[in-house]
Amino acid sequence: MAKSIARRIEYLISDILQEKGIELLEVEYKKEHGDQMLRIYIDRDEGVDLNTCTIATRAVQDIIDQDNIDYDHLEVSSPGIDRLLKRDKDFIKHQGERIRIKTLKPLDGQKTFVGILLDTSNDVLKIEIDGNSRSIPRNIISQIRLHPEI
Predict the structure, then answer these.
(1) What's the N-to-C CA distance of the chain in angstroms?
(2) For 97-101, which contacts have Cβ atoms below 8 Å and span 24 or more sequence positions?
């Protein structure tokens, strides 16, 4: 049920955010410590600052409230420097950047891979690890995050 509510919220707010030059990345709707959390992750080309979060919150809060969606806490924020990559457009946008891939099952005895995102297709993600190209089947990938060197 939480996933369907999150999808409903995405449907309700994505256009209004887009009109303000803000990209909706993800909506998270889940119970935490007995409270209903509603997290909205956003981005824009210039980056996300406090002002961007304030604009987004003001733009979406009334819409969500008018739809009678129950929540205790609303958070609007950037996904951070180690953001999840989920969509094909994420892979295109972050091509050439360092990523960390976790797989559902071991591939050559390994379940975590860190390298430079080279390319993606419907079937595989290609990354460069220590100068070598590696193809990882997308059907065994559980998570992909940016993994910047700090």
Answers:
(1) 38
(2) 97/146, 97/148, 98/146, 98/147, 98/148, 98/149, 99/127, 99/144, 99/145, 99/146, 99/147, 100/144, 100/145, 100/146, 100/147, 101/125, 101/127, 101/136, 101/141, 101/143, 101/144
Q: What type of residue is 90?
A: D
* DSSP helix/strand/coil, 78: coil
Look up residue 108 and give its amino acid. D
Mean pLDDT in each 10-residue stretch from start to end of the chain (150 residues)?
Answer: 90 96 94 95 92 96 94 94 88 93 94 95 93 94 92
**What fold, for 88-146?**
SH3 type barrels. (2.30.30)
Q: Which residues of the chain does CATH 3.30.300.70 include? A: 2-77
2-77: CATH topology is GMP Synthetase; Chain A, domain 3 (3.30.300)
Question: Which burial class, exposed, middle or buried, applies to 50 when counting CB atoms under 10 A from its CB (0-12, 13-18, 19+)?
Answer: exposed
Phi first, then psi, for residue 26 (nearest 5°) are -165, 150
